[in-house]
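Q: Convert this sequence to structure tokens.
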Amino acid sequence: MLSALMFCMTLCSGAVAQSWQADLSRDAAYLAGDVAYPGLGMRFTCHARAPEHGNVIDSIWFESTIAPPSQFLIGFSDPLVPLGPLYRDDLTLFVGQTGYRLPRVSWNELNSGWETLVGVSDRMFAALPNATRLVLQVGNTQAWELPVNGLATSLAQAQAHCTTAWQGAVPAPDLRRMAERFAASNCSDFFTLGPQAIRTANIDGDGIPDIVLDYNAITCDNDNKRPGVCGASLCSVDIFLSRTFAKTGQPEQLLGMSAELVPLSNGNQAVATSGNLSICQSTEPCAFYWYWDGHSFTQLQQ
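A:
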């Protein structure tokens, strides 16, 4: 199975005096526990919202993928995992004699690295503190023997750093239920949701799912019309952000003929709204891309 095994090669040269290390940091927006081995090209990172709930845009983690509560982001860089397709499903981590296939890893252009998420209750993650041997199998052609010295202690430090904030987090409001209530209030309580009316998204980057409510995909049953927030051609798109709705009780709002979700390089999603002839100033259809900058939706310049 491991016929192509290469024991550390140049990545672990001089590893005798080195070990995994935990870097614990925080700012007004996030806590982070980052576990890495010098020169290895692999890391484990957890995040948690800071008690101050500061603006995400002011955070040192603003352009980073944020691991949701109770999960670690596992990152790899080239040459540990060679460049290739944007997604890989062929990474296996052997902890002792047991192999665990990692969830799909994706290439993050912004960070120039591979990323995947694993929960702290995952069997592989739970086995790491007791690992006496660690091997990363990449496809069928390459494998790396990884060091284990300092890994258990460093992971425990990072997890403890994030767990306090995870446990103290205020329960998030049920944003989908809130979106349904808003739809009902605009339709005198009777309405039909199209398949694209309510969608889960990752817009504000805090690890809690956001909700997009597109009134263009809703029909009011009482008069078989769109909700009152739809005009002759444009409908409102209500966006329920986890980091703002709990404070204001109101969704953020955009206008468009329809709404789509578009992935961004930092792991978040933008909202694309389509325009009509008067807005596009052209006979061709057009779209406007909006991302959350920590304060409001900002149009992404193409």
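The helical segments are 123-127, 151-168, 175-185, 242-248, 277-280.
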